Structure formats: structure tokens, C-alpha cells
Amino acid sequence: MICVDEDPALEAAPRWLGKAFAPAQVPPTDGDLRLIGPMQLATSGARVLRRHRLRAPDVPCVVLTPDDAELELVRACFREGAADVLSLSEAPGELAVCIRRTLDARALERRDREDTAALAAELGKRARELQEMVTQVRLAYDHTLGALVAALDLREEATANHSARVALYALMLGLRAGIDDSGTLRDLYHGSLLHDIGKIGIPDAVLLKPGELSDPEWEIMRGHAKLGGDMLDGIAFLRGARDVPLYHHEAWAGGGYPHGLEADQIPVSARIFAAVDSYDAIRSWRPYKPEHTYSDAVPMLHRVAGRRLDPGMVELFLDQAPESWDWLAGAATEAQTFGDAMAACRECMARGGRSVGK
Ligand SMILES: [Fe+2]
């Protein structure tokens, strides 16, 4: 519907518009297009267009000016949003064409807007679906890793649940050390879970030998670090976690393996892991040693701090209340995924856990 302003100059509008566009007496907000005549312009100038835009921003306007209208008035009409401006003498031949052009352009704009909105909605839906798939894949990875690690721990009967425990301890110590990037924490957790994955490649005759290992056997055993690093290097999802398996037997003062690095040359994730791995080994029963209490472990850790272990990490570890580590050891039996492990660390922190005397 074409909404034509009441204006004596527009009385011939039905003839100019022809059969295709019947003028209608409806408010400008209800029409498809508004035709503004010279009378409104004489009263309000181009401000009539500004007022119209505020009331009916989606209804385009075509303006008919007197033949002697100033160029500045025409410019002002366009500035205020006129879709087109014609002089009265042009109206008989041009008005219908002009209105068709304006309505077609509006229809195209509307379709573009609708297409863009539909595309944005579809993209949002796909992004949510993708995020859900990533979450599911991560969960599947975590559960697969959990099964693999449990199988590894079972191979060495004495170390049952050791990997889940040290991974949780390492995550906690990493958080205490100020690591806050979730990707780095995830790598630390997975690397700690899989720290001895390289032992898959060590023959049972060496790995499970009850007695002392010979020098060549030790050489084979030490190969598990490089083997583990290489294995994770070959898995895109775990590449960032390779530092723990590769460097967890390096020593702060040097002399470790496989590369004999020292101090800060050793990646921080491996230094964190080495501290918690030593603690767990001290507290655990092994065929060749009894389990020790936390109080026994403190001087034992102090003795190796600065030699095998990063003294800063040992200090940070002992700064945490002893009950925290016991609580985490219990939580490790339940933590199946990185998300579970993070939740356990947060709960442990929320329970307090600063050391006695601090
Ligand atoms: Fe190892």
C-alpha cells in the first residue's frame, strides 16, 4: 500500500501510480511506502523525513518537490533518509518506476537481513554442536587414558593407583605454582598420568626383575623416559604432555637422564612432577621398602631438594597442609577426567590447606 500525504499537489497521484500501486488512506506506519508532497516540505522542510524515520523506520519515503525547489532542499531530503526525490513535473512519467525501484530495493534488503539472521542462528547452532562434540571427544580421550593408565599400573602391581595419585598431586602443585592456563594444566595432568608410559617398551624380564638390575639392564630401564616422550610426540592430542615422561628423571643438580639437564633447563612440568612422584614413592610400600609417614617424608624430601628435586617445588609442596595430600590421595580413586581432577583440586583449596604455622 502506498500512503499518500494529504496535499492538493498530490491529487493526481492515483493516475501517476497507475493500477500497480493503489494509494491508500492509512497511517504512514502501516504502508509499504510513503509519498510526501510539497505542502509538508513547505511546512517542515526535510525535518518531516526525520520525524517519519522515528515513527516508521522500515517504511521508505519518496518525496515530490516543487519544480523550483532549491538543490539544498533536495540534498537535505536525501540526508534525512529519502529513498528518492522527484520534482512534480517528473511525477507523471517517473513516479511509478521510482516506487517500483524503491520497493524492490527494500525487499532485497529485507531478504538479506533475514538471510543474515538465519545464517547467524545456524552458525550459533553449529558452534554449540561442535563445542559439545569437542567435550565428548575430550571425555572419551580421558576415559581411554584412564583405562590405559590403570593397565600400566596393574603391570607393576606395587604401584596400583600411583599414576592417578601423582597426576592429581602434580595438578595441585601446578596450581599452587601459579600455572593458570588450562591447556598447560591439562598437559601437566596428562603427562603425569602417563609419566611411565615408556615402560610399555621395557621387557618384563627387566621391568619386573625381582633382584638388582645389571648395568645393561639399567640402560634399558632408563630408556623408558625417551620412549615415553617419543610416544606422546606422535599423538597430536598429547604432544604438549610429552615433557613429563621425557624429563621426569632429570635431576635439579644435573646427572639425571636422558639429557643430563639441570635446574631451569628442566621443564617446569617435569620438576613439579618429580617432586610429587618422590613424595608418593616415599609414602608407598614397595617390595624393597616399607611405606613411610608424612613426618618421615619431610626430612627425606629436604635431603633430595636441590640435588634431585627443584628446592622451590619441594618448599611449595611442604607449604601445603599434609591433610591436603591425604585428601587428594582419596579423591584420586574417583577422578576419571581432567575436569574431575580440577574440581578435586578446587575443592581441596576451598577446604583450606595452608601449612601449619603459615
Ligand atoms: Fe619413570
Task: Give a verbal description of the structure.
By secondary structure, the chain is mostly helical. The protein has 2 domains: 2-116, Response regulator (Rossmann fold), CATH 3.40.50; 156-350, Orthogonal Bundle (Hypothetical protein af1432), CATH 1.10.3210.10. The protein has helices spanning 13-17, 38-44, 47-55, 71-79, 91-155, 162-176, 182-193, 204-207, 215-233, 243-247, 268-283, 294-304, 311-319, 322-331, 338-350; strands at residues 2-4, 23-24, 33-36, 61-65, 84-87. A 5-stranded parallel sheet has the order 2-1-3-4-5, with helices on both faces. Helix 1 (13-17) links the parallel strand 1 (2-4) and strand 2 (23-24). Helix 6 packs across helix 15. It starts with a strand and ends in an 8-residue tail after the last helix. Bound molecules: fe (ii) ion. Fe (ii) ion (FE2) is lined by residues 195-196, 224, 248-249.
